[in-house]
Amino acid sequence: MIAKKFTIPITELIFIGDEEKDRKTAYRANCQFIRIQRVEKQKGSINNLYELLEVLR
pTM, whole model, 2 decimals? Predict the structure, then answer.
């Protein structure tokens, strides 16, 4: 719905979440996913939204 409203291809969106259901939603929508790992950081995850700036650079 967001992609449609702003006329952006869904493949250009990034879904950010902290749960497995968020990752699955991004996968089903065919958009990129970045996990916020609040407890134990894993490869490809961030601890907070400030670290998102580093990922996007």
Answer: 0.64
